[in-house]
Fold Metalloendopeptidase.
Amino acid sequence: MRLALLALLLVVCANAGIFGDVRDKVKNIFTGENSIGKKIKSMVFNNTKILNIKEKMKKLTNKIKKTLALTPQAIISLKERLSKLRPIKQTQVKETGDSIDEINEKSEVGASLFQGDIILTEKQAEEVQEDVEEETAGGNRTKRQAFKDRRYPNTIWSTGVNYYFDYSANAAVRSVFKKGAREWEKDTCINFHEDRSAKDKIRVFVQSGCWSFVGKIGGSQDLSLGRGCESIGTAAHEIGHALGLYHTMSRHDRDKYITVNLNNVKADWLDQFTKQTPETNENYGITYDYGSIMHYGGTSASFNKKPTMVPFDTVHQETLGSPFVSFYDLLVLNNHYNCFVTDGKPGPKPIRTTKRPGVLPKGFRCADKPTCEILGAEYCNALDEDLRISMCPKMCGYC
């Protein structure tokens, strides 16, 4: 009798549309305009610090344009290279976007982030501002790629990278983060530890877009792998930021290798092409890497799907935007974390020599690192002398 009454009640509720109302209300809680996700997104991107930094970057628009302006000769060179490019039809594979900048634009967070996927600290934002202002004033101090300011080595994870997964991180996010971390871990001295109780740690969570802070900022810092970011390459890219890397196209010597085609860049994405701060970064003498996982694709930030970055050697056009951690990416991190001189453990400070060729540093050993076999002798010219001596002295002819 009770079962019959219950069945009758269910039929009445269904016919009255009660379940439909409940379903819609539950759906709205998670996906509607007043959803939990929207509120969390608002909390993350509308806090005072983020808004202040966003406003600071917006005020730099005209100055950034000035730094990206091309000379008449550069314009001619760019036109010649563009004419050589083979037109490639781009087919969107994923609804959420096929690249980090596409995903973040569709998620409506790209405009709030520096260079499309970075959250800056206030100090870092000040350094970017100083860099742009100095360049427009004609300054020419060295600018590099890996984050290295006065707080270094406190900005590296010298005792290992601690992380934990937020409740929002599903199985796919957890899997790609671990695999992305492994891409950095397997050929460096950097280790990752899942530890929610650690003082300094990365919170991996699902928020709108794919983004991270640069370097260790202290305490708990966020790394988002939102909808569309569930790939190993995307996770490895954001982890690269958390380890201390800016984008490759931010290097001081970028303009020797690629040209930024301002004509195709979205007006509100100009900061994606700023060069990095003059006194806070280091390339360790390593050559420009078109295939770096930290390099955006050739049509990144384009409003018309046409190239925004064009290499001087157009053979490398389709190399830009690689989803794989490259050898040079690993080389930068191994130097940044002092892996070559600390027997496989992140060191407090890289040891560098200023001695001239033929004058070897104290404690010198005539022994090549295992990676020299991968490099090959032809790469000696791509490394600065400090690296040749510390990494591959035998192969490069120092002993």
